[in-house]
Amino acid sequence: MNLNLLIENLTNPALLFFVLGIIAVRLKSDLQVPESSSKFISFYLLFSIGFKGGQELAHSEINMEMIWVILFALLTSIIIPVYCFFILKRKLSIENSGAIAAAYGSISAVTFVTAIMFLDTLNIKFNGYLVALMALMEAPAIIVGFLLIKFYTKTGKEKSGSFKTVVKHALTNGSVLLIVGSLIIGLVANEKQAQGIEPFTTDLFKGFLAIFLLDMGIVSGKKLNDFFKSGVFTVSFAVIMPLINGVLIAILSGFVTEDIGNRFIISVLAASASYIAVPAAMKIAVPKANPSLYLPMALAITFPVNITIGMPLYMSVINMTQF
User: Fold this and answer.
1) Nearest-CA neighbor of 279 among 97, 142, 149, 155?
2) What whole-number distance in Å separates Cα of residue 240 and Cα of residue 252?
3) Between these two residues, 169 and 309, which has the higher pLDDT value?
4) Buried b (16+ CB within 10 A) or exposed e, 282-303
5) Cα–Cα–Cα angle for 180, 144, 79, nearest 5°?
6) What is the pLDDT of residues 219-263, one digit of tens each?
7) Helices (H), 94-231
8) Contact between residue 281 and residue 170 where contact means Cβ atoms under 8 Å apart
9) CA angle (26 as vertex; 22, 27 as ends), nearest 5
10) Fewer Cβ atoms within 10 Å of its own Cβ: the N or the C terminal residue of the chain?
């Protein structure tokens, strides 16, 4: 792994604000980002990513590489929760295994945002259609996780939720709907119209991301103690599995695209874990699954692992496996 990349990522202001949030919790500080502000910033980040992705997509031509990349990424969101489920099932309940597997097969929009900023520091571009791909990768993992739970639950009476409910929630989840809607608006808006809101969608982006990661650090810091009580297995899984997924996809993605930026984004999406869409869906469909397990795993462990050592590692693997 390139140590310069690692050092550069560790000194990134956005990441340091995340660390500041954790430190604030450990020091029992009253530092807080108001909930309404945090929600607004979340909406802003998704809107900005979607709109800019739509603009990029408007200038992209549909070709075989795009089709192969989309199929490859969707396949990863189906396969990853399957093997994660069987690993988790050895130590955890069926419901918890399915919920955690769905989280690790799905994606994290905030990790995606951080990955974009990481590429920006390296002056590496990626195709706009990957923004749409991020939204598309949410639903399959949630559906697979639910089906695995339903199949392996012993009796019909113990089966929770309905397949229709999960599919509907996966497709109408607020974060998915906002980013897809913003992407479509960016796609149909002409260049002159898009320039009118460019200062809002571009110039303010990094500042809002830093504040959002500060909030994420505070939330993560509050959940760490409870999570560590769950044992070594869940902690190890939350650290090791994303790195395995990211490295594996960093290598395999070379067979569908040669673009470094595209390969990196797909790898990061495969390595990330959902802590928004999946918890919301599983709360409805599988109430027996314990959110105090899968939420801290994704947010307090996997997220910081990805943005510290994960991203430089995936980029190094991609550079070493350029075909």
Assistant:
1) 142
2) 18
3) 309
4) beebbebbbbebbbbbbbbbbb
5) 90
6) 778 877 767 777 789 999 999 999 999 999 999 999 999 999 999
7) 94-105, 109-121, 129-136, 138-152, 163-172, 174-188, 191-196, 198, 205-228
8) yes
9) 115
10) C
